[in-house]
């Protein structure tokens, strides 16, 4: 029924790849394609690429650093440059900043501790592929689980992100010390979103909340024009 | 040839780990420590004659994240 083609990348140490694939399948009705980090090519005609959370390569060197240089990421960067939507969550966000697809970097949480809880987020921009299903200024609750989610960019970059409407989500309370409470950002073209909170872990009531579902619905509806 | 790459956070980038180390030192009774910044030391064993450009390239492409970090290359005499 659905012609949607979504792929999820798995790196050694990814642990949210299955959740991401499951969320895409539940919302789209189409089976997710699974791609291994060593693959030099992606499946053809993709509508969506998920870069999942976890601890790729054991967080060696820097979180996401080694994964961002893996063969499949070269293909992901090419696909993103062609306009294929890419969602990076948690470690996936770190991979996207390390790969240069998104600006800034994710530093150790300001409180040093690993933060694992549900947090309130404000949807800052609903005019994006990923957030069209939310209401402007809406507060949603999504789980976070990270040690290095403290978003950093220089002031000029932060001003540009804000000025161009590229801050998708902002924490409604202090979570990790992120600059300007930024939780998720878009690339300039708007087809790449990186965020620390986990929308794929909030898809149905059994998860304890379903505020993440609209993100996948927005992206998939926007793509297949359902 | 042995090469040491010293990677450090750029000035102005918050260093929670350095701050925690600082607090711990104070807790141990060491006074007079004004600031602590934690970095990373990467030791490479490379072919003799490896060019400075190649080493620089390694640092920029992988060993350091130029958004938040600086690096310094030190060639170690055998």
What does this structure look like?
The complex is a heterodimer of chains A (226) and B (78). By secondary structure, chain A is of the alpha/beta class. Chain A has a single domain, classed as Class I glutamine amidotransferase (GATase) domain (Rossmann fold). Chain A has helices at residues 17-28, 65-68, 71-81, 91-99, 155-163, 213-224; strands spanning 6-10, 33-36, 48-51, 86-89, 105-107, 115-123, 139-146, 150-152, 167-171, 182-186, 192-195. Chain A has a 9-stranded mixed sheet, sandwiched between helices. In chain A, helix 1 (17-28) links the parallel strand 1 and strand 2. In chain A, helix 1 (17-28) crosses helix 6 (213-224). The longest helix of chain A has 12 residues, at 17-28. Chain A is globular. Chain A starts with 5 loop residues before the first strand and ends with a helix. In chain A, 54% of the residues are buried. With 78 residues, chain B is of the alpha+beta class. Chain B has one domain: Phosphoribosylformylglycinamidine synthase subunit PurS (Mth169, Chain: A, 2-Layer Sandwich). Chain B is 31% helix and 28% strand. Chain B has helices spanning 16-27, 52-63; strands spanning 2-9, 40-45, 69-76. Chain B starts with a strand and ends with a strand. Chains A and B meet through loops of A and helix 1 and helix 2 of B.
């Amino acid at each position: 029924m659905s012609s949607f083609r979504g792929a999820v990348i798995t790196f050694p140490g990814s642990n949210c790849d299955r959740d991401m694939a499951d969320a895409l399948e539940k919302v789209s009705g189409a089976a997710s394609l699974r791609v291994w980090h060593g693959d030099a090519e992606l499946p053809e005609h993709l509508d969506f690429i998920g870069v999942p959370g976890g601890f790729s390569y054991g967080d060696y060197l820097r979180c996401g650093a080694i994964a961002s240089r893996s063969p499949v990421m070269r293909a992901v960067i090419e696909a993103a440059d062609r306009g294929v939507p890419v969602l990076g969550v948690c470690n996936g966000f770190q991979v996207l900043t390390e790969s240069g697809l998104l600006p800034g970097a994710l530093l150790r949480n300001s409180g040093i501790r690993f933060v694992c809880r549900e947090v309130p987020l404000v949807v800052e921009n609903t005019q994006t592929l990923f957030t069209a299903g939310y209401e402007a200024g809406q507060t949603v609750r999504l789980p976070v689980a990270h040690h290095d989610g403290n978003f950093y960019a220089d002031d000029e970059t932060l001003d540009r992100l804000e000025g161009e409407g590229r801050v998708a989500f902002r924490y409604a309370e202090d979570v990790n010390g992120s600059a300007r409470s930024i939780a998720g950002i878009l690339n300039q073209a708007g087809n790449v979103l990186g965020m620390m909170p986990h929308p794929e872990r909030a898809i149905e009531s059994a998860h304890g909340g379903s505020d993440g579902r609209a993100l996948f619905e927005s992206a998939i509806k926007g793509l297949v024009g359902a | 040839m042995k090469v040491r790459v010293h990677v450090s956070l750029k000035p102005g980038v918050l260093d929670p780990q350095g701050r925690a180390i600082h607090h711990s030192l104070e807790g141990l009774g060491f006074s007079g420590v004004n600031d602590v910044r934690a970095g990373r030391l990467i030791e490479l064993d490379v072919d003799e004659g490896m060019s400075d450009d190649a080493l620089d390239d390694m640092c920029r492409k992988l060993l350091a994240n130029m958004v938040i970090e600086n690096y310094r290359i030190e060639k170690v005499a055998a």
